[in-house]
Design goal:
The complex is a heterodimer of chains A (345) and B (417). By secondary structure, chain A is of the alpha/beta class. Chain A has 11 helices and 10 strands. Chain A has one domain: Thiamin diphosphate (ThDP)-binding fold, Pyr/PP domains (Rossmann fold, 3-Layer(aba) Sandwich). Chain A has helices at 49-64, 77-82, 102-115, 129-134, 137-146, 197-203, 217-228, 243-246, 253-262, 288-292, 308-325, and strands at residues 3-5, 69-73, 94-96, 122-128, 151-156, 208-213, 234-239, 269-272, 275-279, 337-339. Classes of the chains: A alpha/beta (345), B alpha/beta (417).
């Protein structure tokens, strides 16, 4: 992905109006012809990061494929809030089969399209972190290693939200969930466990892996577009705050997501095969407390007395991300490089 | 063309003639030769227009088939035993979604103890999953049933398991008449789905259904099986007309005229039973056999009518429900409701134990004399069982039952007889 430098007219803000961009660089959501693939009227909670991420991702995929798109969906919040028959928010062909087989179902759809000479029809599989990193991991890994022509999008809200906030292998250390309660000598989820799915995806040497975050929706759109320019197995891991499960204000979803990035808690990058090819830099590095404090799932780290060890542990993990992915650019300028995908990089 | 070949290869060749568009495979004995055969045909171009996908598990195999079938492609897979259990969740999903996938089940026992040989426990574990289940008596019928299965599955939008006995059929060399492509094309039209994932006409498939309609949706699955009950004899008749062979149907009857005793069974054991019955007939006994080809849907009326005149029924089944007894015999009992004739359930051939003519002859004579218990385990070694029960009575840490039995028997290699 190449970058276009944008001059900010307002200082002290990172918002960029589409009118400042060339028409071809404007967001999919700003386009009158956007497909509203996940249409309004669904049952997601206020401030749902997953609904936001899915809306941007699927509309971008639709634009990139000239509306020739089929989606397979894992069991989970996205499946439940978008459908119960006879209603459906999906304006695209969509199938839900099971919790753990979404990548395989998508493989089957892609195979059917290939055999029917409809290679123009592309396939997206999507699921939450539980459906991706835990129960769907076997099928996902199989789809990766075969390099099947599927874009898998994981909307990661770091726990099983649909069943009432239980721990998944994407739940961070110290986080309180219904199965990692904030009691005992080491309250919340234990440290040193869990999976890093983007890195595991890269280890499969699939053509494209990216992470994204709902505070940088233009970046998410660009990555979906980029993914759709490539054939084979592709993976995008989207960080989506969950107000209900995390105990955050529903109006703070974007803010919390931004803090996850600015603290280094969640690295935003792009990789081809097993090589990282671009990193979204931290603009102004913040301590992890800023990210943790607004979330009730981490409240036990601050009250009744600060758990400095746990906070230091989380800070160390964020610092490791910063070093590992090169998230902080010492020569950072006030002019922000907004990532804009070009047609043929 | 009549061809001397392995059962698996006969099935592979016939499935290929059905023009499957997506085949997914995960190896498990004794099914493996079927998908090996198909993979070769896809690779060498004998089977054009087909995607062959090697997946990482049976759960993925059927899930890929779910995706490809929902996207409008004729889809096939094969499995056995543990593989069927591993895909269980997808088995129910495929039928619930009404996807006409055809799957060969090379019937094999289920562990523990791990056992690769034939019985019907795997098929029976999924008998209530909403799939049509057809049982082949020999390799010719196994091949023919696949042609009829694709036609039937697509007409009623239900998945079908074609069950063939593992090793006994899959690995047996017999003469099988493999039809021509023209014959199969004339019988089996291209797949026209009732629902399909198509960007030109977007639908949502597989969303949640609440109490307001769930009962009706489930009833309609039953109604489709009842439609299949009507269709199966029609398709078999049409098959006979076009291929000149009597294959499939709901039930098959052999020497049932004037029979006092009727034996009911499924699959390849019917051959041994028929031979035994020939001998018993020669000895002046009025005995016949009824083979069940369609276990799901279960032909209640046909069986009820067929056994209306007999004095006793013996069900020989290669499976049993631990804690109660027979599985097939309970369904036959339902067919015989309010009828006074005794029904004897005989569990036989578990985990590949050979069902011999000698044992069957003795068994049927006991039945004719009404000396059978309601539940009999054919050729069960009671002494070995009792010695193990005694060991468990004497010692708390008596160890693994399976090992104890084999040590007791002094068997150093697999014995099937």
């Amino acid at each position: 992905m190449t970058a276009t430098t944008i001059k900010f007219y307002q200082t002290g803000t990172h918002t960029v109006g589409n009118r400042l961009l060339d028409p071809e660089h404007r967001s999919v959501q700003a386009d009158m012809r956007r497909t509203n693939s996940l249409n309004s009227g669904h049952r997601a909670c206020q401030g749902c990061g997953e609904a936001l991420g899915a809306r941007y991702a699927i509309d971008a995929a639709m634009q990139a494929t000239d509306n020739q798109l089929i989606a397979a969906n894992a069991t989970g919040c996205l499946e439940v809030f978008s459908t119960p028959y006879p209603e459906t928010s999906w304006q695209i062909p969509w199938i839900h089969s099971l919790f753990g087989n979404t990548a395989a179902v998508a493989t089957g759809i892609a195979a059917a399209m290939r055999v029917k000479g409809r290679s123009d029809v592309r396939v997206v599989a999507q699921g939450g972190d539980g459906g991706t990193t835990d129960i769907g991991f076997g099928c996902l890994s199989g789809m990766f290693e075969r390099n099947d022509d599927v874009l898998y999008i994981c909307y990661d809200n770091e726990a099983y939200m649909n069943t009432g906030v239980q721990r998944s292998s994407a739940t961070p250390g110290a986080a309180r969930t219904a199965t990692t309660p904030a009691v005992g000598t080491a309250p919340g989820n234990v440290f040193g466990q869990g999976k890093n799915l983007p890195l595991i995806a890269m280890a499969h040497e699939i053509p494209y892996v990216a992470t994204a975050i709902v505070s940088e929706l233009r970046d998410l759109e660009a990555k979906v577009k980029r993914a759709m320019e490539i054939r084979g197995a592709r993976y995008i891991h989207v960080f989506v705050p969950c107000p209900l499960g995390w105990g955050t204000n529903s109006w703070d979803t974007i803010h919390i997501a931004r803090l996850a990035k600015e603290t280094g808690v969640f690295p935003v990058f792009e990789a081809e095969r097993d090589q990282i090819v671009s990193v979204s830099k931290i603009r102004k590095q913040l301590p992890v407390e800023d990210y943790l404090r607004p979330q009730r799932r981490f409240a036990h780290l601050f009250s009744p007395k600060p758990n400095t060890d746990a906070i230091a542990h989380i800070q160390a993990l964020a610092d490791r991300n910063i070093r590992r992915f090169g998230l902080v650019d010492p020569a950072a300028d006030t002019a922000i490089a907004a990532p804009v995908a070009t047609g043929n990089p | 063309m009549l061809k001397q070949c392995e059962g698996s290869h006969a099935v592979a060749a016939t499935v290929a003639l059905c023009r499957p568009e997506v085949i997914c495979a995960y190896p498990i004995s004794p099914q493996t030769h079927i998908v090996e055969g198909l993979s070769e045909m896809v690779r060498d171009g004998t089977l054009p227009g087909c995607e062959f996908i090697n997946v990482e598990s049976e759960f993925a195999a059927l899930s890929v088939a779910i995706g490809s079938s929902a996207a409008g492609a004729r889809s096939y897979t094969a499995t056995a035993s543990q593989g069927l259990l591993y895909m269980a969740e997808a088995v129910w999903n495929a039928s619930g979604l009404g996807l006409p996938i055809v799957m060969t089940l090379a019937n094999r026992a289920i562990g523990a103890p791990i056992n690769i040989w034939n019985d019907h426990t795997d098929a029976m574990s999924m008998r209530d999953a909403g799939w049509i289940q057809l049982f082949a008596e020999n390799n010719q019928e196994a091949a023919d049933l696949h042609i009829q299965a694709f036609r039937l599955a697509e007409e009623v939008s239900l998945p079908i398991m074609v069950c063939m006995d593992g090793f006994i059929l899959t690995h047996a060399y017999e003469g099988v008449d493999i039809p021509t492509q023209e014959q199969v094309d004339a019988y089996l039209p291209p797949y026209e789905p009732r629902q399909v994932l198509d960007p030109r006409d977007p639908v949502s498939i597989g969303a949640m259904v609440g109490p307001e309609a769930f009962t009706e949706v489930r009833y309609l699955a039953h109604a489709k099986q009842m439609q299949a009950l009507e269709l199966i004899p029609q398709l078999a008749a049409e098959f006979q007309q076009q291929f000149g062979r009597d294959s499939g149907g709901l039930i098959r009857q052999y020497r049932m005229e004037d029979a006092d005793t009727v034996v009911i069974a499924l699959g390849s054991v019917l051959g041994t039973i028929k031979d035994t019955i020939d001998d018993l007939r020669d000895e002046g006994n009025k005995i016949g056999v009824l083979g069940i080809t369609s276990f799901r849907p279960f032909p209640l009326t046909e069986i009820r009518d067929a056994v209306s005149h007999v004095r006793r029924v013996v069900v020989v089944e290669k499976c049993f429900a631990v804690g109660i007894g027979g599985i097939v015999s309970r369904d036959v009992r339902t067919a015989m409701r309010n009828r006074p004739q005794p029904l004897y359930c005989v569990v036989a051939g578990l985990g590949g134990r050979a069902i011999t003519k000698d044992s069957l002859h003795q068994l049927f004579m006991e039945a004719i004399e009404d000396k059978l218990e309601p539940l009999t385990f054919l050729d069960l070694d009671w002494n070995a069982v009792n010695r193990e029960l005694e060991r468990e009575r004497l010692t708390r840490r008596s160890g693994p039952i399976a090992e104890n039995l084999l040590r007791d028997l002094g068997v150093v290699a697999a014995r099937v007889g």
